[in-house]
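Standup notes
- HV: blocked on the assembly model, inputs below
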Amino acid sequence: MSVKVCKFGGTSMADANIIRSVKSIVESDPERRFVVVSAPGKRFSGDKKITDLLFACHKELVKSGSCRKSFSAVRSRFTDIAAQLGLNIDLNAVLDATLERIEREKSEQFTASRGEYLCGLVIAEYLGMPFIDAEDVIFFNDNGTLNAEKSYRAVAAACREGRAVVPGFYGVDENGKVRTFSRGGSDISGAVVARAVNASLYENWTDVSGFLACDPHIVDSPAPIEALSYKELRELSYMGANVLHAESIFPVRKANIPIQIKNTFRPDDVGTTIVPTSRYMPSGRIVTGIAGKKSFTVIYIEKSLMNSEIGFVRKVLSLVEAENVSVEHIPTGIDTMSLLIEDGELTELKLGRILEGIKCEVEPDIIRVMENIALIATVGHGMSSSVGTCARLFKAIAEAEISIKLIDMGSSELNIVVGVKNEDYGRCIKSIYNEFFGG
Ligand code: ASP
């Protein structure tokens, strides 16, 4: 029988009611044999996620040597859920032991991981499935990256029984210390489990019915995306479409396991299926989706005969590297190059040093800085095979009377990135959307 791994996000774990829906989803398909869970998320706007409550516990612990006060909010969320689900476990004893270990270990990542741990225990009990502690099967290297091969082997061995609940978000490093992925990282845990058990499908259950062609805060009810290739997903999520943690595709992509985004609150909605690029069936649309990010700084450099000056690009990039700043895109022309840097990476001081360095090292004819630039990516496999896509894109932007500050067309022909002023961001996306999806 093929196996599906289902990862449920924080909103799907938020209270007993939605956890009941989770149970009926899991039980409605015998292939759904492995369940990976996040910590309970917000029940309503203004509510606190368990993970955030745990970060507050760590703060209290650092300040006062104990986190008893903050932990009481975590305790009551879990005991309420267990009581409402009618569970027959002594959760208070588990919570006492958890608090004791949090206070002993004094580690922020350990503390943050307890939301998934406790949730995993509760869900395993409720679904009547074995519990596998991620501490025993998910491994990190010392530099904080996933030790993928070791984790696949350990998960596969532990999952031999054929059914299990595994908490997301954490594992252990080479010294046996609990570590977490970055925020939202349970998606990565789910992908690791899917790869390890060689799943036919990785289902990622969340609170939206998959990806939309663009941000619904900008365009009213944008078209849903039913199918997406891994490559398109990578481009869109890198540029801000954040339904899924960007790193979660790597474990499953290598094994050609599709991911399906589904909505726990509307389980009958089709959702979005993310498939290997080789199995991608053209949707008939030229553009699959549009995403973007605001607040970039552009350093524009111009120098005659730049193209024939050996080492020019390397010198410029090493100056940026020396400031420990990462560059997002580097559009180039024959005698020009631009460095696109996210504002969060830069300080006045670093920018000043980079500019001075470039002036000294490569003596450009012109060097200019543009601030408050937004990048907008128009993504789709269909673009490479259709003539006139760029023309339509630029016409749409021109008709909105928006001036394009830069253009970067990836060599894969899958993605065209334009830079516009931050203030034109929403209007620009709307206009591109109307051109390719309107009417
Ligand atoms: N609970 C963690 C967070 O809030 C991880 C996750 O939900 O994936 O970021």
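- HV (later): unblocked. The CA atoms of residues 54 and 90 lie 21 Å apart. The chain has a mean pLDDT of 94.
- Next: hand off to the docking folks.
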